[in-house]
Specification:
The chain is an alpha/beta fold and 557 residues long. The chain contains 19 helices and 23 strands. The strands form five sheets. Strands 13-12-14-15-23-22-21-18-19 form a nine-stranded mixed β-sheet, with helices on both faces. The radius of gyration is 25 Å and the shape is globular. The termini are far apart. It binds glutamine. The site of glutamine has 10 residues, from β19.
Length: 557
Amino acid sequence: MLTLCPVVTFSQFLSLMGHKTKYIFVTGGVTSSLGKGIISASLAKLLQARGFSVTIQKLDPYINIDPGTLNPYEHGECFVTEDGAETDLDLGHYERFLNIDTSQSNNVTTGRIYQNVIDKERRGDYLGKTVQVVPHITDEIKRCIQILGNTHDYDFVITEIGGTVGDIESLPYIETVRQLKWEMGTDCIVVHLTLVPYLAAAGELKTKPTQHSVKQLLELGVQPDILVCRTEHELTIDLRNKIAKFCNVAPDAVIESIDAETIYDVPNLMQIEELDKVVLDKLGVDSSGEAQLTKWNQFVQRHKNPKTSIKIGLVGKYIELKDSYKSIAESFIHAGAHNEVSVELVWIHSEEITEKNAAAALKDVKGILVAPGFGERGIEGKIQAVRYARENNVPFLGICLGMQCAVIEYARNVLGLSDAHTAEIDPNTKHPVIDLMLDQQDVSDKGGTMRLGAYNCEIKPNTLAFEIYGQPIISERHRHRYEFNNKYKAEFESKGMIASRINPENNLVEIVEIPAHPWFIGVQFHPEYKSTVANPHPLFIHFVKAAVEISQKLEKA
Ligand code: GLN
């Protein structure tokens, strides 16, 4: 019989029981925006392509419970998972690279950690103890990290720690990493991402920022095992040796991460640098053989060698920060590669479109996507963009608010309801063709209270949606409070805009389309959250295809 010695930690107990999840932490130094998410996703891809099961987690050191309440200008897009978690956009990269679903457990913020600890304190779980950052906050962080390994049979959990080492906010996370390294021994490693800047005046790459950043980690008790050095120029052997020597890492554990033409090159670049091999060696896992990236590389080849190109207009109000529409932009890359088309996104500010200039602003694009969003700013411009697409037979895809704008435009200009609007912007409109969902009417909190996550629904046969999906029951992810107002459905359908997909449980209209238009579709959900390299989303595939075919037809005519 196995008797538990009281000094055996939980993770040691699990490993005694034969559970072998290994943990890889990815920290960042020197500056933000080095691409920790892409490096983490690329490493995960390489491990997955060697046949291992792997997931990635992001720990965000801000106090918001989740990024759902953050303005996209602050933090880029909010990515939504199957289980309805509003998460950091890095989870989108993880899903797109790995073709796996992530969940709420894959994104944890300081706000959530504190909320959990405070809830426990209120319940009396701490039995009269003083509740402190160490051990209570760090224990909760530990629990949130290990929950992935404990509840699933992953071979590897990669945990990316947001922010930069040295930030006040990151301290409890780095302390947790220190403790876990101590507890887990060789089942856990730290990959530290740093910058090796090129000083043009000196004509040299400089290692000092990397040295300082590693020193900062060391001050907190963490010796990184591997350094991934972001650089604009190749690292020479001498430079690698110098970094190795000053930072106490093996020379082969100094990995060059040179600027890439596309993020989709990074797994290959990391394979050339043998990041996966070094990681496996450090974790005591057999590293013989190679990651098989055949399918991935077929995609990269198609992405880099398009046969034709097409301009698609993306109409949104956050276009100054392209990260606000990250998943949409990536979905076009997947769909473009599938069609062997290079999709050139033309970013169009919805606030700048008016009835007068819409034709001039949109004349060069062969397809128009009206983006999701919230609030009044730019909505009239979005409605004008829809009108232009509808009246000029330009392929149109409206996503969430974009679909709602399509409904408003149709109501105003075809049904003749000139004051039609969404109740979100004009709660007193006589014609709320988009209205607050019934189950949202008593909701006052903004965070985590929308209709969120995956829902099934049914597509009507003989519709464009059916042709696109090729099956009647589909599941898509949602993030909205307002919906198509069914009181107007018969009137819309009699005048040419039909509801082609309806949720059978609550009768919510999920897709509208105009059969008389060559390709016009508005979706209440977010197809962009489900497009991956291995599985480009059918709506984007067909949209790009339609844009190419229809524009070619018009050119010939
Ligand atoms: N603001 C709209 C709603 O809440 C649309 C949301 C969105 O585009 N994600 O219904």
